[in-house]
């Protein structure tokens, strides 16, 4: 009988602000090979621009970014959030480390994003988080559901697809007062 992998919990992680010194880390998270691997999630060669510019934008205070680390292992993800054009509305993205599968844990993305949402929603200027998740990215859709995002609609042919063309994306949204908090999510997971 095989034992199911255990859930990683937010309390096991450390969150720190991303800095310019994290460029080698971002380069590894968004290498050309990784972008090709993540193409079903909507990543394209255009994300090379993200790789080259994201830390400078964080350093300038134009966007927010954190590195989520697992003590004893190292960085698991980079969490990047930017204003979405309307005051108080932000959009985010997660860049995962290439070696997450080797940890043999579940809920890595959920735990990392939960910790980050606690930090993001501390900012009184952040009222709403919105995002687009490719319909082909079932793990991210499930993660957003666990975190309490609302599926608000469908953006037709919104994201590029590895096979060419474009795929629909689910519009996900969360208001600050809807966020349960990482600690509540962790208690829910333990129940």
Low-confidence stretches: none
Roughly what percent helix?
25-40%
| Secondary structural class | alpha+beta
Number of helices: 6
- Give the strand order, joined by hyphens, for the main sheet: 1-2-3-4-5-7-6
Principal-axes geometry comes out as globular
Main β sheet profile: 7 strands, mixed
Strand-residue proportion: 25-35%
Mean pLDDT: 87
Calculate the terminal CA-CA distance, rounded to whole Å: 23 Å
Order of helices and strands: EHHHEEEHEHEEH
Radius of gyration using CA atoms only: 16 Å
Number of beta-strand segments:
7
Q: What does this protein structure show overall?
A:
The chain has 191 residues and is α+β, with helices and mostly antiparallel strands. The chain contains six helices and seven strands, in the order βαααβββαβαββα. A seven-stranded mixed beta sheet has the order 1-2-3-4-5-7-6, sandwiched between helices. Strand 6 and strand 7 form a beta hairpin. The chain is globular and about 40 Å long.
Write the layout of secondary structure elements.
Blueprint: E1 14-17, H1 23-29, H2 32-37, H3 47-59, E2 64-70, E3 74-83, E4 89-96, H4 108-120, E5 128-134, H5 138-147, E6 150-160, E7 166-175, H6 182-190
Parallel strand pairs: 4-5
Antiparallel strand pairs: 1-2, 2-3, 3-4, 5-7, 6-7
């Amino acid at each position: 009988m095989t034992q199911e992998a255990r859930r990683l919990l937010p309390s096991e992680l450390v969150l720190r602000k991303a800095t310019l010194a994290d460029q080698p880390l971002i380069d590894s998270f968004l290498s050309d090979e990784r972008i090709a691997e993540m193409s079903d999630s909507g990543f394209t060669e255009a994300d090379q621009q993200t790789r080259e510019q994201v830390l400078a934008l964080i350093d300038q205070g134009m966007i927010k970014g954190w590195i989520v680390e697992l003590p004893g292992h190292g960085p698991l993800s980079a969490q990047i959030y930017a204003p979405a054009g309307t005051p108080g509305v932000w959009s985010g993205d997660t860049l995962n480390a290439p070696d997450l599968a080797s940890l043999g844990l579940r809920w890595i993305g959920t735990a990392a994003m939960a910790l980050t949402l606690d930090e993001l929603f501390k900012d009184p200027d952040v009222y709403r988080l919105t995002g687009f998740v490719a319909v082909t990215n079932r793990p991210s859709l499930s993660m957003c559901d666990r975190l309490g995002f609302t599926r608000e609609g469908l953006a037709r042919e919104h994201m590029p697809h590895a096979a060419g063309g474009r795929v629909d994306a689910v519009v996900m949204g969360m208001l600050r007062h809807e966020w349960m908090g990482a600690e509540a999510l962790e208690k829910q997971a333990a129940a």
